[in-house]
């Protein structure tokens, strides 16, 4: 049973990643973000997922510095992720983008660096840059985001280092069966973005409400627990202290098989974010 807030999963290169972390997309107000990161760390979060395109790496870094000081922990206790944006995909430009993210965050290494979107004709060169950073010991792990099976097959065809992670949109209305199966066979860990469907109605689902009532938990907690029991790393975003605590308070119960099946059956292949096979940014 996954019954510990600090429970980790071992990635294919042997490093440990917390099963649950904090997402920081769409938090534009610096003081709100600094506070959220600080409060999250105080309450036990050890993984934070950011990206250059979110435009808030400075505030994320400040929250980290203040958070670790208040919690009496060190940088090494955290798992920090960022992502290279589409405009920077290329060998030199990806390395420069990595350096720029480190500077904005005020850290000297990342735990995980991802290719944010599989831009055709560009992601392989960027992957070579990530391999270089990894081999040089500048980053602890490298991975991808929004890769479909065919993107992964293409990348694996000539990659020297296998991605440790594929971070994809995943929630009960988009269960991503195919990508998950492929990733499992290839020892690539799946990580869920918009695990709560980014506030687009999932939490009002009646079946989920019923299950939540039964376990005396909230719908958000049921959905996040479903991720964990499905061996999916999850990174819900909140800047609200009550919800930050709620989202990490999921290590004291177990969904049974019947309820997991019920949640699995909610799939509608419904995306709330862009389609990785059809985006133009
Ligand atoms: P989430 O599914 O995490 O949902 C966040 C929304 O749900 C916010 O409005 C939040 O509001 C609300 N919320 C959080 N907890 C609860 C709760 N317990 N009960 C009710 N409402 C709640 O959406 P995101 O899109 O932010 O996804 C999470 C993270 O994934 C991002 O922050 C980012 O790090 C990553 N991501 C990656 C992408 C990629 O392309 N790789 C794309 C999109 C996201 P409030 O803050 O007020 O609590």
Describe the secondary-structure layout.
Layout: E1 8-10, E2 16-18, E3 22-23, H1 30-42, E4 47-49, H2 57-71, E5 79-84, H3 91-105, E6 112-115, H4 123-135, E7 142-145, H5 149-158, E8 165-169, H6 177-185, E9 189-193, H7 206-215, H8 219-229, E10 233-234, H9 241-248, H10 257-264
Parallel strand pairs: 3-4, 4-5, 5-6, 6-7, 7-8, 8-9, 9-10
Antiparallel strand pairs: 1-2
Helix pairs in contact: 1-2, 2-3, 3-4, 7-8
The structure holds NADPH dihydro-nicotinamide-adenine-dinucleotide phosphate.
Residues 23-25, 49, 116, 145-146, 167, 193-199, 203, 218, 220, 235-240, 243, 246-247, 273 line the site of NADPH dihydro-nicotinamide-adenine-dinucleotide phosphate.
Report helical residue fraction: 25-40%
Ligand inventory reads: NADPH dihydro-nicotinamide-adenine-dinucleotide phosphate
Report the biggest beta sheet as strand number plus sense, adding barrel if it closes. 8 strands, parallel
Strand arrangement across the biggest beta sheet: 3-4-5-6-7-8-9-10
CATH superfamily: NADP-dependent oxidoreductase domain
In the CATH hierarchy, what is the class? Answer: Alpha Beta
Overall mean pLDDT: 98
SSE ordering: EEEHEHEHEHEHEHEHHEHH
Name the beta content range: 5-15%
Whole-number radius of gyration?
18 Å
Distance between the termini: 41 Å
CATH fold name, please?
TIM Barrel
Number of distinct beta strands: 10
Classify the secondary structure makeup into a structural class.
alpha/beta
Number of individual domains: 1
Overall CATH architecture: Alpha-Beta Barrel
Q: What gross morphology would you assign? A: globular
**What ranges have pLDDT less than 50 throughout 5 or more consecutive residues?**
none
Number of helices: 10
